[in-house]
Structures are given as structure tokens and as C-alpha cells.
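Title: Prediction job returns without error message
Component: structure pipeline
Severity: low
Priority: P3
Assignee: unassigned

Description:
Job completed but the reporter wants confirmation the result is attached to the right record. Sequence as submitted:
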Amino acid sequence: MPSSSVSSTDTAPKGVSEPTPLRPVADNSERRPVPFRGGGFAPKPIWWIAPLVFAALVLVWEIGSDRGYISQLVLPAPSQVFEAFRDLFESGMLYNHLKASLTRLVIGFTCGATLGVVMGVLIGLYSLPRSAFRPMVAAIFPIPKIALLPLFIIWFGIGEGSKVATILFGSFFPMVIATYGGIDAVDRSLIRMGQSFNMSRAAIIRKIVLPSALPAILNGMRIAASISIILLVAAEMIGAEYGIGAYVLLAGNLMATDQLIAGVIVLSVLGLIVSWLISMAERHFLRWRA
């Protein structure tokens, strides 16, 4: 009975020899899996490093103040700063200052960022606004916004209007530049692909241009938020009864460095919270990049 297996030599046509391999075929036992190296650059944050570094700095600061290496007048110990912060909290003044500062910050930053995104979209998509407003943005953006605060006081008074206008003006220009810069950086092959599929202009803007520009817009929002906090402190130092900036100014005038540092820490925590909120927005809206 003939065997069911047929060798490779039997299947080759007569008179035709098998091609000689260019390199010896490796045995299956010698094959090794090749590691995947196409993951790109994706640094992973190590959550415990930042608290460890912060705790080490505070410990060195406390030991230096306790042993006299650091002057108490220049830089009080963390324990004294904590006592000043506890007094601020127990007296209820922390709530009053935070309420006033957050109200100004939210109104000014929200209005400035919204107007900045709208203006950036117009500059990025349309020729007439681009020709009219892009040079104006380039000319006004380098001006220190704090220098315009007296002008805003003349226009809007010394009350809330001038403070909100300062924050709005400071957050407007970074958002404009980030928005039209992100639109200019959109891959044009994606737009041509949408046009080849007969997509409308509105659909291309909504489904291709804006999602592609969203990372740049969120990065601009992070920068605009930091500038808004800086301008908030500067605006509250002029004619404000409540606010973190007014509290820091009063502590500085009284040479109460423990209260001053407590106010600075409150501003730092506020900045961390804003940065965390923007990071949450990035995780939500930019899930398609994963």
C-alpha cells in the first residue's frame, strides 16, 4: 500500500531541480521571539516620587529652621506656616478669600478662554479674520497684562470689573494663538481625504479639524490658566478687600512671612487643582490618541 505522504522531490516536475535556498533554513528550535518595539515614547508617571520629594524638602526645611541655619524672619519653619494656615481656616477668612478669588478666576478665565477659542477658530479657518486679527494678536500678546491694569481701572473702575477684565484679557491671547496654531498643524491629507469622501465643510471642521487641534487647545488652556492665576493675584493687590492676592499683600506689609507663605501655598494648591482638572479633560477628550 503506497504511503500517504509525498515528498517534495516527488511533486517537482521531472527534469527541474529544487531551488537552492540563499541562506540555511533555521530549525524551529532555534527561533526566538522578537520583542515588540513599536510602542513609541510613553513615559509612565510614578505616583510616589513627587510626594517623596516634597516630604524630603519639607523635612530639610524644618530641620534647617529648627537648628538656626535658616532665619525665621526670612523663611519661617513649616510648622509655623501650618499654624498660620490653621488660624486662617478656623477664622473663616480662608473661605472668604477663596470665594472671592475663585469667582473672579472662573468668570475671567471662562470668558477669556471661550472668546479666545472662537477667535482662534476664525483666524485658523477663514482668510478675512486671519488677515485682520492675526497681526493684532501678534502685536498685543507680548505686552505685560499687569501693565494694563491701571488702564482697566480707569475703564471699568476699581471694583470687580477691572479684575475680571485683567484675567479675561490675559487668558484670551494664549487661547487664540494655541487654537489657530493647532488648526494650522492639522494634517492636510486628512482634510483631503474628507473632501474625497464628499464631506461637507462643516463636517470636516467638526470631525477632522477640531479633534486634531484639540491637543494644542488644551495645552493652551493650561498656559492660560497659569497666566490667569498670576493676573488674579496682581489684580487683587489693588483695591480688593477679599482675595488670596489681598491676603498675601497684607501679610507682606505686616512682615508676617508665615501668613505670606501660607497664602502662596494656597495659590500653589489652586494651580495644582486647575492643572488636574485640565488633565482630566485631556483624558476624556483625547482618548482616541491611546
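Comment from assignee: result matches the submitted record. Confidence is low (pLDDT under 50) at residues 1-9.
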